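[User] Could I get a sequence and C-alpha cells?

[Assistant]
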Amino acid sequence: MLRRRLAGIVDHVLRDVIGKRGEKIVELCLTSYKDFILPIFIAAHLGDKRPAIDFYVELTTNPTARPFFLVQAKSTATAETENGLQISSTAEDIEHLLQIPAPTYLLGVHEPTGRVFVRSVHAGVGSHAITRIPLAYELTSHNLKVLH
C-alpha cells in the first residue's frame, strides 16, 4: 500500500517536472535565433491563468502590426515512434482552442531530447483529443520560418 502511494507521488512530481521543463523548451525553441539575425518570435508564458493557453506569441518582424498566435504546450518523456510524438491532449483542450478567434497551435515536446513538434488547431479540426503529432512537423529552423 505504501509502495503504491509513493509510486503515485513520484509519478505526479515527475509529470509536473516534465511539464514545466517542456514549457521552458517551447519558449527556447520559439525564441531561437541561431539561424536568424534576430528572434522571429517573442513568447510570453501565461502560467495557469488560461485553461487552454500556455503562451501568447508575437511575430517580431512586422514593424506596423503585432501579428500573434496562441500555444498550448504538451510535454512527454515517452519515446517518439515512426508515427509521431505521442501526446495527451483531451477533447476539452481542443474544444477550448477551437473557440478562440485567433490562430492556435498545439506544441508537443519530447522532453528528454528537447525536440518540439507543432500542430495547428483550426476550423475543420474535429473537437476530439489529438494524441499524436507527426515527426515531419518538428519545429526546425525551416519550420519556424514556415510557422512565421
